[in-house]
From TrEMBL:
Protein name: Sec-independent protein translocase protein TatA
Keywords: Cell membrane, Membrane, Protein transport, Translocation, Transmembrane, Transmembrane helix, Transport
UniProt function note: Part of the twin-arginine translocation (Tat) system that transports large folded proteins containing a characteristic twin-arginine motif in their signal peptide across membranes. TatA could form the protein-conducting channel of the Tat system.
The family this protein is said to belong to: Belongs to the TatA/E family.
Organism: Pontibacillus chungwhensis BH030062
UniProt entry tagged with the keyword Transmembrane helix: yes
GO biological process assignments: protein transport by the Tat complex
């Protein structure tokens, strides 16, 4: 997603954010966005690891059923 946004796009986004939120609120907004992204990445990695563990258990159960 961010790979498709170039430098001019980032500058435009920053200018719009500056106009909308003002210079005093911009650090607070940046901090909130950063922490939200961090939580999202953590949740997706937890889901991915849980999914991987579940599929390993399913594979093991299927192998045990075939061998029995």
């Amino acid at each position: 997603m961010l790979g498709q946004i170039g430098v001019p796009g980032l500058i435009l986004i920053l200018v719009i954010a500056l106009v909308v939120f003002g210079p005093s609120k911009l650090p607070e907004v940046g901090k909130a966005v950063g922490s939200s992204l961090r939580e999202f990445k953590k949740a997706t990695s937890d889901l991915t690891s849980t999914d991987s563990e579940d599929s390993k258990k399913i594979d093991q159960n299927q192998n045990q059923d075939k061998n029995a």
